[in-house]
Structure formats: C-alpha cells, structure tokens
C-alpha cells in the first residue's frame, strides 16, 4: 500500500448524463441503432472503472435515461448490467435528473419494476432528504429533480455542515451552474453552493463536457460517457475522486470510458479525402463528413468510391464506424467532360453535348451535371 | 412475341348476322363479293383486341336488323403454346362483358381475366403502344397506335399509314417492341445499355407519363415520409419549447414584477414612518401652542378685568344721566295723556249726534223724490224700446227685400248664361253630326274602291286558275304518253341482283374451270376445220394445209369441228366444277336468257340499262303526276278565293246606289287621306258629338235649376214687400235713421234713470261717511289716550329698571375695584414670552399630516404588501408551471429534431436530384437518338426500300422514314418526292410493303383489307409472290373481293367447300359467302 493510497480516505467514481434511449433522429439506420446501443455499452465500461479503481462508491448524477419514462428495454438493460456485478461495499447511487425526473411512472419511482430488479447495493435518490453514510467518516447528501425544469437550487437545499462535523461531506445534485447564461430555469446551482453547504465535493450532472466549476471546493461535471451530438467537447469521461485525510482537498481525475469519438471533417480536395480514407482509427469514429470539392467525372467516381469505402455499402462495412455525409458541396467539373466520352458512340456524345448545353443554359444546371455523371457511370458499365 | 389469329366468330355485329372461320398460319385469303361484310370482319378483330366492351365506340357495332348484343370471339396465339381467346359482348351495363381465356393446347381454356382487366391484359400481350384503359388520361373509344394501324389497318385510307407516328402512342410498349424487333440495326449496343439502365432508374421513380411515383416502392415516397416525420417531430418539439419559453418569460416577468412590488412596498413603508414622525412633532408644537394660548388668554383676561372696572365707572355715570332724562320725559307724557282724554270725549259727543232720529227722516224724503223720477224715466224707456223693435223689423224687411232683388237678378243672369251654353252645345252637336255624315260618305267611297280592287283580283285569279288547269291537262297527257311507252314485264331489282349473283357465280366457276388448254392439230390431208374457243367461235382457214400445225389455246373449253371427221370437245377443270358450271349455265339459260330475248337485251348489262331506263321513265311519270296534281290544287285554291265575286258585285252596286245624289266630289278629296285618316276623323266627330250632347244635357239641367231659383227669389221678394207695408212705413222710409234716433233717446232715458239711482246712493254714502268719520275720530282719540297711558307706564318701568341697574352696577363695581387692585400684569406678560420661546424651540414639520393622510398612507402600504404577496403567489404558480414543461430537455429535443429535419431534407433533395437527373438523361438520350443516331426510321427504311426497289425495278430509291416512323418521302431521280405525289396505286403498294416489313420483323399477323385495288396485274403478281414468302414466317389475313389477285384459280374453295388449303397449309382460301350470314338490310 503506497503512501498515497494510505492517505486516501475515500474513493468514488462520479458519472452522469448517460441518456439511455437517446433516439439519434438525425442519423439513418443502422447508425441510429449503433449509437443507441452504445449508450448502454458505456455503462459496462463505467462499472469496470469503478471496479478497477476499487472505488468505494459510484455516483450517477442524473440524466441516466433520456426521457422520464423510457421503454422497458432500457431500464431492464441497465438493471441487468448492474445485477451482473457481484459488488458489496460499493454502493451505487442513481440520481433523477431533469431528463429523467422523479415522477409517477419513472423507473426511479419506488413502485416501478425497475426498482425490484436492482441489486440491494444500488440506491435510488428518491427522497428530498436523502443521506447515506459512506462509512464512519463520510456521508453523501443528494436531492433529486422532480420536474424537467425548475428554479430551485437543489444544492442549496442540501443540509449545511453542523459545527463539529468533521466528516467528508459529498453532495450530489443535477442542474446547471450560473455561469451558463440563459439556463437559470434549469435547476441552477450556485457556484459557492459547495462552500456554503460545507461540502468537500459536489457531484453534479447536466452539462456534457467535463468541467470543474467549483473554487475552492470541487464542483464537477464528469461529462457524458458517450458523446450525444456533433459539436460537444471534452466528453466521454467519468470523474475518479480521491478524498484525502487531514482535510486536504480531494483529487479529481478524469478517466475516459467512451467507445466512440465524434468528429466533423470537411474535405475540399481529393488528396484530403484520400488521406482520410487511409486513416486507421476510423472504426470507432462517428464522422460527419462535408465534401466540398469540384471533381472531373473520373475524380467524381473516385470520390464516390472513397465515400462508399468510408461509409460502407449494403454488402460491406465501411471504414468509418458511423458516417453522416453531406455531399451537397460535391460538384461535377464538366469543363472537359466531352473528352471523357470520346470513345463512346456518336449518339452518346451527342447526348453529352445536349446535357452540357442544358447545364450551361437550362434551368437546373445541378440536375444536368448529375445526369452527366450518371451517363459517365453507366457508360463505364455501372448499373 | 409473335401473333397469329386462329379463329374468329362474329355474331350480330354490324351487317354480319353470323360468321365463323378458322385461319391458317400463313396466307389467308378471305374472299367474297362486295357488301358481304369483309371489312366488318376486320372491324370485329379490331374490336375484340382494342375496344372495351362498354365503350361508346361499340355503338357502331349494333346489328342492322335487331337489338341483339354484338358478339366477337377471337382466338389467337402469342407464343407457341400460349393460346388466348377473347370473348366480348359489346354493350353498356349488364349487356356487355369481356372474358379472356388462356390455353396451352387450344382445347381446354381457363379464365385469365374478366371485365375491364381483359383489355389491360390484351394490350399488355400485344405490346402495340396502347396504354391500359381507364384512369385519368387513358385512351377512350378506339385507341390508336402505330402498330395498331400497321397490323389492323382499315381499307378506307390505305395511305394513312404514312402519317402514323410513334409519338402519338400512349404507351412505350410499341416503341420497345419495334426497337427490339429492329434492334440489330436500330441502336448501338452501348447506347441501348445506357438507355436501358437509365430507363430502369427512371421507372423506379416516375410513372410512364413522367409523373413522380408515390406508391410504396417509390424512392420519393420513402424520403417524403421521412421528411414528414421529421417535420412532425420538429413541430412537436417546437411546441414544447414555445411552451417552456413562454413559462420562462412569464417567470422572468414575475420576478421583475416582484422586485418592483418590493421596491414600492419599501418606499411606502418609509413614507409612512416619515409621516408619523412629522405628525408627532406637530403634536408637540400643538401642546406648546396651547400653553402659549392659555398664557395669552390669562393676560388678556387680566387686562380685560382692568378695562371692565374703567368701563363700569363710565356706565354708572351714563346711567345716572339717563335717570334724570327719564324723569323729565314722564312729566311730558302725563300732560299729553290728559289732552288726549279731552279729545276723546268730544268725538264721542259728535257720534252720538249723528246717530239720532233727525238724520233718518232727511234721508227718506230725498229717497222718495229720486224713486218717483226713476219710475217716470222707466215708462219712457219702455215706449222707446217698442219703437226701436219696430224700426229693427222694418230695417230687416228692407234688407231681405234688397237681398231678394239681388238674388233674383243673379238667377236671371244664370238663366241667360245657361241658355247661351245650350245654344252653343246644339251648334256643336249639329257640327259633329255633319262631320259624321261626311265620314260615312267617305267610308262608302272607300268601300267602293276596296270592292273594285277585290273584284279585279278575283278576276285575275280566275284567269290564272284556268291557265293552271290547262297546264295540268298537258302534263297528264304526257303521263299517258310515257306510260304507253314503258316496257312491260321487266325484271325487278331483286331479280336483277339474283341474275348478277348468278353471273358472278358462273364467272367464279368458270375461273375454276380455267387452267389453260393448248391444242396442236396437224392434219394429214386438207380438211375443213372450225373451232369454238371458250364459247367463242373462231374462224380458221377454210382449208388447212396438211403438215402445218394449227395451234389453238383456250382457257376453259375448246371445241374443234373437222368436216367429215367429227367434233373434238376439250374441257378444262375438274368434273365437279364442270358440273357446277353446267348447272349454272342451265340456270342462266332458263332464268337470264329468256329475259334477254324478251327484251332484246344482249346481256345482263343491257337488261340493267333497260330496267334503269324504265325506272327513270317511271320516275318521270311520278314527277309529272305530282306536278299536275300540284297545278290542279293551286287552280282550285285560286277558284275558291274568287268564289265571292258575285257577292262583291252586289255589294258594290248597293254602295253606288247609296252614293247617288250625294256630294261625292267633296268626300272624294277626303277619301284620298286614306282609311286610317277617315277612321280618326270619324272617331273625333263621334267624340265631339258625345261631348256636345253631354254639354247640352248639362245646360238643360242648369237652366231648370236657374228657373227654379228665380221663382223662389221672386216669392221671397214678394213676402218681404208685404212685411214692410204691414209695418206702415213707406218703401223709401229711412228705418235706419229712425232706429238710430230711438236708440239715442233710449240711451238718454237710461242715463237719467241711472243718475237718479246714483243720486240716492250718493246721499246714503255721504251720511255713512259722516258716521264713519265720527267713529274714526273717536277711535283715534281713544287710541291716543291709551297710547299716552301706555307710554307713561313704560317710562315708569324704565325708571324702575334704571334705578335697579344703577344699584347693581354700583355693587359690582365695588367688587371689581377690589379685584383690580390685586392684578400683576407684568407677571402675566412674562409667562406669555416664556411659552413663545418654547414654541420657537420646536421645528415646524415640512408637511402637515393629519390622521386621515396617515391612514391613507397606511392603506397604501397595506396594498403594496398585498401586491408583494400576490406576486409571490403568482411566482410560485409560475414556478409550478415551469416544473411541468421541459426546460433544457425540450431545447435539446428541438435541436435534435431540427438537425434531423435538415439531414432528411438534404436526403430528399439528393434523391430528387438523383432521379431527376436520370429522367433528364433518358430524355436527352432519346432526343439525341432521334436527332443524331441510328433510329427506328432508318432501321425500318432499309428493308422497305429494298422491297420497293424490286417492285419498281429501281424506279424509286430510299424511303425516308422519321425516327417516330412517319413516312416522309421517297427518293426518285435523285430527289425526294412527297408520298402524296405518287400515284394511288404506288401509294397503296408502298403502304403494303411498309406494313409487311413491320409485321415480318414482329412476326405478327397482318390484316390487309383490299389494299391493292389500284394495282396493275404485273405488280399484283409481285405482291402475290411476296405474300407467299411472307406467309412462311408470319400470318397474313387478306380480305378481298378479287381473290385471283392473290391466288390461282385452283387455290379457291371448291363449290360446297368453305375453304381450301394449299402449299402444305401455308395458303388458305376462305369463301366468305359460305361462312358469313349477312343481315338483310341496314336499319333505317
């Protein structure tokens, strides 16, 4: 046992914002299903971290489900994953957030069958005065969201430290800190809440990026374990918190649990596209690819081939795990297009000339360009 | 896919009552005379294949002679072992039906389709470019297409095939079939592959008419549904977000409102406290001010006490002086009272005197004098009243007399006026009678003129009727002459038709006997030889030299008579045909030749000419009959019109007698004005006469009334004169002056009477006045005595009060004098100054507040407190509402839905672009093919041109055919000639070659309905060989009345046969006269 480990009085893993059942409506199948499944898969990795780090407790700070009343497969799946762990002495705390508030019909509700499936060491924060002794020297206070929106500062409703209380006091609520403008209606959390309540650590959830917004007491968003949309930053982590003895401040470490890496790329030349294709770590990438380039028919065909290689086809998997393609910026370069068709019969060349004329003078040049490309492909034997 | 017709059954279809025939696989020549119904069979095939049974176009198939439902059954084969049978009954509703049966062996059929589905299936099987029936834009009636026209072309306009175009097809199947059939030379393989692939893509997304498909498999459908779903999601999310934002905004407003309300509450609370402080300060000042006031009042009271002592001293002096004055005044009042008592005693004495008996006697004497005078005056007044009454009556009588005289004069004047009016009315009446007489005379003149004109008309009509009757007689004479010239016992039209049929049958049989007979005769010695060739005697050399061959050729029969040797008869044809020919000849000799002999006609044509001439004569006779009858009817009408001639003559003579002795000349001038003017003049005269009569009657009535009035007035006059004379006056007595005088006297008497009364009253009044004055004087004196005594008593009382006042004042003044000596005025003034200084030490409040204003401020504060409480409650409610809406959750959801919609819409645009591009590509490829590439026209032109060259021995070159297969022209002598400029025969030959070529490539049956009627025998022979070769690959059905254009004599069906097969079944001749039963005549 190292000196450091001896110095640690309590170790917890803090996670939040799982959003089980998120629909990913802007994706098509099968990507939609892939990404949905990934939400529940992440739970296994979080539990693994808790096991691996020998955490004394796992704190799940809200928005574990995407909606207040998720379908059976989600809460049943979660219960199943928890039940597989043979834990004792490592309680898990599930906190209702604003996406999955504690309402009638919620899985957190005492009467919900989800509760019956949970192992005894899984505790649902279903009381406003929730408190749990994490041993003789540590205690957890938590308060659930009961609605999807509210002005109540749940952190400020936690009990303040009594004089002479020297225990490690941990708070857990779901909400947004004041420094996020325009969201004061979503369970605001005062930045000094941890201080005013006499907490040593305030575990919060809601914002999907990993961030410690507290000073000097850590007030931490652990981030969503799997990114939910493009544009989110610093996601895919849990917080591993080490509470030290002698009143020293806790140490917060972020540990990656995400499988998917979300990425947005815009390629403006064929070389970049080729380079992207040649990357090796794309299988675990959710890629939004914007193609903005002008291509000759031959290049166009290569672009399409690369895109098919990246995204996959009905018959083959793509190099990219999940790809969302925006090819509206892909334009056929028709300036030298007639040369491409020189080897074809005169009647086909005549059709090329007509389409070229249609592109230059007709009402829908884009349609004409696409027709030229179709002609190119079909003339090369495509179907 | 090939096409071959197998069987056709037609019933009650147009002019065909019944027909049933089986067709061979090759050339089928269906022959029969004109009007047998050949073309109807062609129409029946078209109807079975193309026309829905309920179509309005089917109304043309209604049988001529009955209400039976037209029925067609057509059996055909598309591919080997794919045999179909269409059964159609044409009619609307339950009368019509369609069934398509299918068979593999041609024996057992199963139902494939029924009703409307039959036509869709058949059109699909045929692939002739005809869209399925029904639906918007679907073909109605008889559908047309290029291949339909080629394969089933009608007889009417052979060259119309040149104008047929694929562009008019309603479906691509025709083009596709032709393309497939002519593929080897129609399209480049690469081009075709591209086109097919693009077309396949277009077919996924667009209908045949180019509209986007919306069915379940359409790519547009899928993305459109996705977009709709995404829009729905976004709309829901936005709804939730709006709700959230509204609640949020409301909450923010309430928070701001809460801050404002709290601020108002604090302000009001502060103000109330200030007001309370100011009110306390004001109260302290008020207490000091009260003390100051008390001090000042004390000082004032002390000063007043001192002043009161001084004033008491002054009052006491004044009171003593007043007592002295009152004593003197009492002495004066006592003296005056005594004087008044003396005057009262004197007045009482005078009054007693006036009331004594002497006074009463004086008054009675004066009154009797006045009464006597008044009685005299009243008698005089009575006389004057009688006189005045008489004068008034006389004056009234005088006035009545004058009035009666004036009224009488007026009545007489009215009477004269009435008489003048009567005279005037009589004159008007006479004038109107004269005008009426003139009008009657003029009317008579006009009647005479009218009758004279009518008489002239009647006489002319009689003349014309006589002319009509003469002309009618002439026409009837012509009828008799023509009737006499007609040929008796001519055969009827029907008999002629039968003879014609007999002649055609003989010709047909004769044709069957034909085959050519060639005879070569070589004599060993000279002999006389004569020959009859095909029934025509032919002169040979009277003596034929030995060894020299005599070549004789006949078609059907050859008879050679060799003098001294015998007669050689050679006949062509089969025995059956010859027997049939002999029977027909026998019929000819028994039925036709006697008629020819009877009417000296050389042949049937001459007999027809005779019959036609006789029909014309018969027509002329009927026409003459009609004309004569018409003339006689017209003459009768004219005579009928002139029947009143005698009556009119009598009437005219009577009128002329009436006019004798009348001034006709003057009236004649008026008669020129015309009937209308005379009528108007007569009406005016009658109106004038009626008015004059009315005036006359009115005048007579008024005259009677005027006479009656005059009599009444005279009686009144006499009565008035009598009354006046009874009053005794003269007629010229001035009764008015008399009345005036009497009335003046009467007034004077009345005045005297009144004066006497007044005098008596004056006397009484004077005595009463004296009494009153005495009483008044006594009363006045008594009042003065009383007043004097009262004044004396008053003065005494005042003296007593003043003396008491003096005593009281003196006592009070003594007390005050003692108190005044104890007053310290300086001390009181110091006390006042001390309170003034204390008041100055208290600051005055900025604003005065009474209890009401403080209470008002308290109410305002309470109101502000309630507002804060209300706002807090509203805030809590809003916070509660906030908890029921989504918060950032709905923001997230709305963002996701928005992104999903963007992605889906991009996908939709991509799909649209993809398939629109394919559509454009197909259109462009077709356009390029049409304009640039090898096309169907070129492909079709080549074999047709080749056949045309052989037909015309190279006279014509390439046939120009457009990509859509319209035939444009033909190359001739280095220039392209329009097809319309070719001869009719050449056009029909070219059209037939074109149709043959298409059918050949499609391996399809072809129906030719008398297509070569204008073709010369040489080219007919060419077509005969072409058709036979074609029949080896595809079926041809020829409908013709000239079978020998297509067949040899021996190919025709023998008598008793309905058909005959030759060339191993490749050629079949069908005698339609044996398989078609025709309706007798067209329904009117």
Q: Structural class from helices and strands of chain A?
A: alpha/beta
Oligomer: heterodimer
Largest sheet of chain B: 7 strands, antiparallel
What's the total number of strands of chain A? 17
Number of strands of chain B: 21
Structure, explained:
The complex is a heterodimer of chains A (383) and B (1084). Chain A has helices at 3-7, 31-52, 72-84, 113-117, 193-196, 270-278, 297-311, 337-340, 346-361, 365-379, and strands spanning 8-15, 57-60, 92-94, 122-124, 130-133, 138-142, 168-174, 176-177, 188-189, 201-205, 211-212, 219-221, 237-244, 251-256, 261-267, 285-295, 322-332. Chain A has a 6-stranded mixed β-sheet. In chain A, strands 5-6-7-10-12-11 form a 6-stranded mixed β-sheet, with no helix packed on it. In chain A, strands 15-16-17 form a 3-stranded parallel β-sheet. The longest helix of chain A is centred in the first third of the chain and has 22 residues, at 31-52. Chain A has 383 residues and is α/β, with parallel strands linked by helices. Chain A is elongated. The model of chain A has no long low-confidence stretch (mean pLDDT 91). Chain A is built from 10 helices and 17 strands. Helix content of chain A is 28%, strand content 24%. Chain B is of the alpha+beta class and 1084 residues long. Chain B is built from 22 helices and 21 strands. In chain B, the strands form 5 sheets. Chain B has a 7-stranded antiparallel β-sheet. In chain B, strand 12 and strand 13 (566-571) form a beta hairpin. The longest helix of chain B is centred in the first third of the chain and has 136 residues, at 219-354. The two termini of chain B are 44 Å apart. The mean pLDDT of chain B is 82.
